[in-house]
Amino acid sequence: MQAVKIGGFFVGSRYRPFIAAEMSGNHNHSLERALAIVDAAAAAGVQAVKLQTYTADTMTLNCRDGAFMVEDPQSLWSGRSLYDLYSQAYTPWGWHKPIFDRCREHGIVGFSSPFDETAVDFLEELAVPCYKIASFEVTDLPLIRRVALTGKPLILSTGMATLAEIDEAVRTARSAGNDQLVLLKCTSTYPSSPVNSDLLTIPHLRASFDCVTGLSDHSLGIGVAVAAVPLGASFIEKHFTLARADGGVDSAFSLEPAELKQLAEEAERAHQALGRIHYGPSAAEAQSLMHRRSLYIAQDIKAGEALTPENLRIIRPGLGLPPKYWDVVLGKPVVCDLKQGTPLRWKHV
């Protein structure tokens, strides 16, 4: 798989990294803020803004017992019920069209992660150009099959998934006739740490499944995401907010506008820096060859005089014989008068 086309952008190793700003619940239930997030993302230079399409009722049950409560004391959402969390974080479905319209005005892609088949049906009505399957849904093979049948590019986040589970998801999509796949390495902790990011998985994913690969990154800052580019990340997803201080369910591990702009710039620089396997001076380095060391006459000498450490030196610039010939020429007579500053050539010896 060489590339996948999403909207007007190609995603693949030959192209600049495709960066999607994940809005999630950072709109804080304000459509005005949601549209401002799109504006800021576009100004930062990303290619897409991503939403999540669900309601609390399509995600879970309104229960407050046992596993329906977030009990992990290390979680950002500790002590809250899943239903309350999703009620706060969801994006009203009526907002999707104006948000996607604003994306189109900026020339960027608007798309979403559906969490059940009703969300897919809804997003199809809005003619989204691609779909994202979240890490927690990578084992929901009926959902993957439904999305794959749309024939649109399918981005699969692989957080927590075993190699066998990823294989099942990929086979499900391909058996539905869809090979436009992007597999994202993801660590499903919020925030995640560079230590558990395991970016070396990215080239293994690409080799194992012959897919375009990328990173869904929940770590702080941009270092992990930029480091993923030379390992084969052609698609990068980062949560995005106008200001972390404004709060919100995902704000603590979201980038702010200046950081997102820096990510877009540095990811592109990292991609440009890959170049090709090359040795020897490049065209850009040709003038720098002048600044290598070489053999130069350090004192005026007459024809017949021998070259010595006093009248021959290894110095810059690099127009004389290479320094590796020092032992070869030392002690040899010169065949003509040579002035100080003359680059030594074979014709002189």
TrEMBL record:
Residues 294-349 form the AFP-like domain. It holds the Pfam family NeuB. One of its GO terms (molecular function) is N-acylneuraminate-9-phosphate synthase activity. One of its GO terms (biological process) is carbohydrate biosynthetic process. Coiled coil: none annotated. This is N-acetylneuraminate synthase.
